[in-house]
């Protein structure tokens, strides 16, 4: 993926703002009249640039969005009492101090419930077995 520095800057600004014309100008391209809009659109049709934008967006999404394994690990750690939360405790005279404590039982039960749903532990499983008759009717030539 060989892009010029200006093209990379354009792509990065476009990812940030979503505005092709503004990104074109911020990247350092010169334009007169409405040529910035036309040239920015043409630049976005460049396959290598679109690929670069796709890779960058995917990398951002990976860092930003929790994956299935991460969620399951978190729910498991809640269930096992490994997650602690901070809450204020009164010391008197209006003073408070933050202390860590294990999550309440209801939070651990909810984590167990969500994990159980994920693994379909409470779903009735029914095995249906049988034969079904099929009848074919040739009505094409009957008109």
Automatic annotation (TrEMBL):
* Record has rRNA-binding as a keyword: no
Keywords assigned by UniProt?
Viral genome packaging, Viral release from host cell
Q: Which Pfam families match?
A: Terminase_2
The domain of life is Bacteria
Q: Does the keyword Cytoplasm apply?
A: no
What is the name listed in the Swiss-Prot or TrEMBL entry for this protein? Terminase small subunit
């Amino acid at each position: 993926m060989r892009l010029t520095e200006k093209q990379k800057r354009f792509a990065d600004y476009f990812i940030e703002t979503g505005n092709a014309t503004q990104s074109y100008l911020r990247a350092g391209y010169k334009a007169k009249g409405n040529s910035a809009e036309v040239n920015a659109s043409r630049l976005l049709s460049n396959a290598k640039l679109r690929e670069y934008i796709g890779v960058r967006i995917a990398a951002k999404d990976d860092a930003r969005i929790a994956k299935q394994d991460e969620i399951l690990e978190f729910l498991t750690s809640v269930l096992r009492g490994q997650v602690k939360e901070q809450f204020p405790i009164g010391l008197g005279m209006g003073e408070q101090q933050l202390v860590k404590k294990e999550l309440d039982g209801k939070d651990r039960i909810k984590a167990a419930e969500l994990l159980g749903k994920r693994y379909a532990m409470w779903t009735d499983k029914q095995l249906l077995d049988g034969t079904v008759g099929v009848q074919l009717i040739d009505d094409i030539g009957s008109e």
